[in-house]
């Protein structure tokens, strides 16, 4: 079930899944063309959501601070990225793009739009 959230794409409360947080992250990331793991109070998360919405993409957003198991998923994302900054984390077409720095680099070098088109998130 999707809930329209603020001006972003969709906020989706995570459903009960397996107990492994990494498994949950991978499953959730593969369910939509663009998935953002976020914290509702994070300014970088806000910026990446604005970027996608400004491009006409409606991402599925998982606000980890509004999920009872969000801390576990946040730790799994930190392991996945290999650093201490867990959010925002963006998946496009089920593939990990990375944190804000990787998303912005892809946007600047022109590789973000083709990724979004291939995933079916843009029809330009």
UniProtKB/TrEMBL annotation:
It is found in: Cytoplasm. GO terms for cellular component: cytoplasm. Its main location: cytoplasm. It comes from the Eukaryota. Keywords: Cytoplasm, Redox-active center. Pfam families: Glutaredoxin (PF00462). CDD domains: GRX_GRXh_1_2_like. InterPro entries: GlrX-like_pln_2, Glutaredoxin, Thioredoxin-like_sf. This is Thioredoxin superfamily protein. It comes from Theobroma cacao. Residues 34-97 form the Glutaredoxin domain. Belongs to the glutaredoxin family. CC-type subfamily.
């Amino acid at each position: 079930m999707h809930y329209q959230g603020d001006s972003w794409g969709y906020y989706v409360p995570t459903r009960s899944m397996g107990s492994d947080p990494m498994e949950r992250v991978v499953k959730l990331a593969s369910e939509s063309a663009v998935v953002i793991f976020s914290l509702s109070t994070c300014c970088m998360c806000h910026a990446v959501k604005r970027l996608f919405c400004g491009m006409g993409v409606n991402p599925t957003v998982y606000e980890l601070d509004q999920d009872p198991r969000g801390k576990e998923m946040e730790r799994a994302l930190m392991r996945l990225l290999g650093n201490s900054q867990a959010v925002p984390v963006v998946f496009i077409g089920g593939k990990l793009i990375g944190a804000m720095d990787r998303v912005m680099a892809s946007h600047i070098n022109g590789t973000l739009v083709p990724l979004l088109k291939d995933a079916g998130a843009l029809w330009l």
